[in-house]
Design goal:
- By secondary structure, the chain is mainly alpha-helical.
- The protein is 79% helix and 0% strand.
- α5 packs antiparallel against α6 (104-123).
- It is elongated, with a radius of gyration of 18 Å.
Length: 147
């Protein structure tokens, strides 16, 4: 295998790490907005599950804090807590739907996001921030351009 092919495979694997991260960050951002805005879908879901509406505000604030921790450089222990919190959020949502007697159409996606959160945390390089890794991916393998 040529060096270029090996380099492309390596870069592809590095980019594949970001699939669960992107899914979790996007879902958390959208979910935080929906929870804080209390859209009709959230109100209907909370009514069905028997949760009070103020719980949506608590979840929205927690998701916003998790996003800030994940996307801000540094503070690795804070990131650990953010990922752990998101596993509880998504795992709790899946468990709530199962306990309410809902089918897989309701609990499968929260379970997927709980698993994606585990994968996102496990596959990210240790000791680097999310933004530093993104920056490195954007410039890896490129030659400096003359001024």
């Amino acid at each position: 295998m040529s060096t270029r092919t090996t380099s492309m495979i390596s870069r592809g694997l590095k980019l594949a790490r970001w699939v669960p991260v992107t899914a979790v960050v996007a879902e958390t951002a959208v979910g935080a907005y929906w929870d804080l805005a209390r859209i009709s879908y959230v109100r209907d879901s909370f009514d069905h599950l028997g949760y009070p509406m103020y719980f949506a505000t608590i979840l929205g604030v927690a998701k916003t804090a998790a996003l800030a921790a994940i996307l801000t450089p540094g503070h690795p222990q804070t990131k650990e807590w953010a990922y752990a919190g998101l596993v509880f959020v998504y795992g709790g949502a899946a468990t709530s739907h199962v306990a309410a007697g809902d089918g897989p159409d309701k609990w499968a996606m929260p379970l997927f996001f709980a698993a994606a959160t585990f994968a996102a945390r496990a596959w990210l390089p240790q000791g680097t921030s999310t933004t530093a890794t993104l920056r490195a991916l954007g410039t890896a393998g490129r030659r400096p351009q003359p001024a």
